[in-house]
Amino acid sequence: MNPQISVIVPVYNGERYLHECIDSILNQSFTDFELILVDDGSKDGSAHICDDYAKKDQRVRVIHKQNEGINATRRRGVREANGTWINFCDNDDSLPQDALENLYCLTEDTDIVIGFPDTPNYRRELSLDDCRRNMITAKLLPPTPWAKLYRRSLLTDDIFDFPREIDGEEDMIMNIRLMFKIKRAPHICFKKVYNFRRNTASVSHTKRASLEHEETFDKVREQSIPSAVINNFMSEILSSRLNGIVSIAYNNPETIVGWNHPYLIRLVNDIKKYKYQLNLQQWLLTHTHVNSLLRFFAFLIMLKSFLRYRLGLNN
């Protein structure tokens, strides 16, 4: 079989929502797909659930392997895939019934189709340069692997090759690398094609923010952008760096106020070098030297971001 789409679901201890996830994929209005369930060494009943579906539906294939993390699990799924296009879905999320159909109808003359977990409040096409910039800042485009179709030939091993220590940001790194690999603009599906369940037990919610983590992430991000063009994207990189220290300023302001950490010193030097213009909240973040005030300003920045997200104003 060579289906048009391979849907890859990394599975790890996800039995609570796994039935809902798999059923939503098998019930798609678009039918030319295979479903690959990659069990990443689950310790609950997830593996048995996967095997039961494979026995009942020939579109389902199951891969069992030792625990390696989400990134290696996605890579294994891609290696096993037969489809021309790849779609990722997390095991605690699900797809609207017409998700694959809405994405697939936009695959002509492109290599990536980008959808959304909520209908965006803009409807304009973006150039390849626009997509690259917005993938770095995560403003107009979700930096996640789900809610998208990728041409399978793009997803070579190097796309997934980065340290496991940056768990929580591997999604953004993957998409940044892909944006600089393609030669034509992605097509954008201005529809809801993904049901995202906010899981407070996930890595992105449980990881401890630290300057060391941000420094590692920033290094991998810079390595993911071709050196010949990286200077053209320093404004977006600096904006993302500043955004990355907000949660640290709230949880551990004492690590920020002195601005003597090597990562912070480099950030300040690059702000000057590239003549980056700080907005008000960035200025407050970089010029407040009292712990309690820095935490307060960081809280206001996070509150503003949360309200904009809830009101659909991030776009």
Number of strands: 7
Radius of gyration: 20 Å
Q: For this structure, what is the CATH homologous superfamily of the largest domain?
A: Spore Coat Polysaccharide Biosynthesis Protein SpsA, Chain A
Number of helices: 13
Instruction: Name the strands of the widest sheet in spatial order.
Output: 3-2-1-4-6-5-7
Helix share, percent: 40-55%
Give the CATH level 1 class of the largest domain.
Answer: Alpha Beta
Q: How would you spell out the order of helices and strands?
A: EHEHEHEHEHEHEHHHHHHH
Rounded average pLDDT: 93
Description:
With 315 residues, the chain is of the alpha/beta class. The protein has two domains: 5-203, Spore Coat Polysaccharide Biosynthesis Protein SpsA, Chain A; 208-310, no CATH class. It is built from 13 helices and seven strands. It has a seven-stranded mixed beta sheet, sandwiched between helices. Helix 2 links the parallel strand 2 and strand 3 (60-65).
